[in-house]
Structures are given as structure tokens and as C-alpha cells.
Amino acid sequence: MPSPNTITVSQLNRLIGLPDAPVIVDVRIDEDFDNDPFFLPSAVRHPFNEIETLVPRLAGRKVVVVCWKGLKLSAGAAAILRAEGIEAQILEGGATAWREAGLPLVPAASLPARNEKGQTVWVTRHRPKVDRIACPWLIRRFVDPSARFLFVAPSEVAGVAERFNATPFDVEGVFWSHREDYCSFDTMVSEFGLTTEPLQRLATIVRGADTNRHDLAPEAAGLLAASLGLSRMYKDDLKQLEAGMALYDAYYRWARDAVEEGHDWPTPSKKG
After folding, report:
1. Is 3 exposed, middle or buried (0-12, 13-18, 19+ CB in 10 A)?
2. Which of 8, 11, 130, 146 has the most Cβ atoms closer than 10 angstroms to its Cβ?
3. Residue 227: what pLDDT?
4. Cβ contact 43:1 at 8 Å
5. Are 139 and 191 in contact (CB under 8 A)?
6. How far, in Å, CA of 133 to CA of 244, rounded?
7. Where are the alpha helices (H) located in 59-152, listed in sequence order?
8. In whole angstroms, what is the distance from residue 10 CA to residue 263 CA?
9. For the chain, which residues score pLDDT lower than 50?
10. Measured between alpha carbons, how far is 59 from 63 in angstroms, rounded to an integer?
11. Residue 268: per-residue pLDDT
């Protein structure tokens, strides 16, 4: 009989990418991680024997603890968190079961270095429209939920990146940017190993909206319209980003769960 404190691979996979997804804490020892240096999407690594130091950050959040095979390390770490009043589960079968299921894994080598608060820091041009909202959404939902984003004048991106140890994106001449006919969002989906059908579908829409190729997907025109509307509603780029997160949450749920669903009124039987 499954433990009430476990969650299956398929159950967790359905939660990742959603606004209320649990915090995933990877407690694998160095040897196990070095043998398979990949993260579950949105996971953060933390020593199992220092799990109590996370309690202040995890208060009020749901947590899933992951180790190599879902045994003693995750069981003990999750039990300690529960003793501190945090709702913590164990991933059944651990990172091994996730890999065996063929689900997305984020290469550790693709993640920029984190700051003293454990955040990846990114910098791009101010007044974002499409790519510069879509990319932060992808990072926060699937790579680093705590990521920090800096929006600055285009001429200052390179200098801010250097002085503040930030990773530049969606500007010319950097790694995380457009490549041939593909936009920065495409680059991130590929480099982070997130080539699932829903995210690839969403990437096509983002590319169509960002490069004025509305022929790629009929939804691209709608995304551009909503993005331009948001850019007129908010002068503060960070407030615009927060509003844009909900927009991309909705597009993602459509891409994952509602592509085949249409809407018509009145019903065909009542028309005519």
C-alpha cells in the first residue's frame, strides 16, 4: 500500500509548471548527483543533513523531496520538514524513477551560478513585450522559481551583467537569445531540456508573436495583442512581468490540456 506521504512520478509531472506547484528539493548526495547531473524541472538542490535550514523559506508551501531512489534520504528529510509543520512528500522511486519514465530533466550545466540567496540572476532590455516575459515565465515555472530579473536600458545590459553577475538574455550577441529563425524562448526550451509537446506548442506561438510570423499559429496574434496591452498598462517592468505570468500560465494550460476544445454559441443545433 503506498504511503500517504508519497507522490508518484505521474502525479508530480502534472503539477510542475503550474502556479501552485510544490517546491521540489533535491537531496541527493554528491556522488549520486555527479553520476546524473540533471534536475527535475524547478528543483533546487540542498544537503539532506541541512534540511532544517530551509524551514523559514518553505513555510506555508507544499514540498516534494527527491533523492536517488526515494528511500532513506528523502524519507528522513521529508519527516523533518513535517515535524516543522511543513506539508512534505517523497517522490516515489526518486530521481531514478523520473528518469526511467522519460520525463524532462534540466541539465545542471545549463543553469547559471546562483547568488548568495540561491537565486539565478538574469538581465535584459527594459520595456518587455513577448520574449522578455515568456522567458522569465519559463525560468520561474520550470527552472528556478526564485529567479531574479533585471530590466535595464539596452545600452546597459552588458555592463550590468558583468558588474552584478547576471546572465543576459534576449539581446544580440549572447548565448540566451535568438538563433536563426528561432527566438530566445525556443533557445531556453531546448537548452533546458524542456522539449515537451505543450512547451513546444507554446514556443511556436511565442515565436510567431515575437517575430511577426502569425502564420505559424493562429494564437500568435492574440498573444501579441495581449502582450502589447500589458506593456501599455504597466510602466513598471516587474509589475508587468507579474501580470504576464498569469497570461502565460493560461496559454500553457491551454497548450497542455485544452487544444482540442472549442467554443461556439449558440450551439450548431440552434443555428440557422
Report:
1. exposed
2. 130
3. 98
4. no
5. no
6. 6
7. 72-83, 94-100, 131-142
8. 29
9. 1, 271-272
10. 10
11. 61
Contact (Cβ atoms closer than 8 angstroms) between residue 90 and residue 65: yes
Angle, helices 219-233 vs 197-210, to 10°: value is 70
* 38: helix, strand or coil: strand
* Cα atoms in the 13 Å half-sphere on the side-chain side of 268: 2
The helix or strand, by DSSP H or E, that contains position 87, with its residue range, turns out to be: strand 87-91
Residues with Cβ within 8 Å of 114's Cβ and at least 6 positions away in sequence, in order, are: 120, 144
Report CA Rg, the chain: 20
Cβ–Cβ under 8 Å, residues 91 and 9: yes
Q: pLDDT tens for residues 222-253? A: 999 999 999 999 999 999 999 999 999 999 99
121 vs 149: CA distance, rounded Å: 6
Task: Output the CA–CA distances (angstroms, integers) from residue 40 to 53, 172, 216, in the order listed.
Answer: 21, 30, 30
Residue 163 contacts by C-beta under 8 Å, 6 or more apart in sequence? none
Give residue 61's pLDDT.
Answer: 96
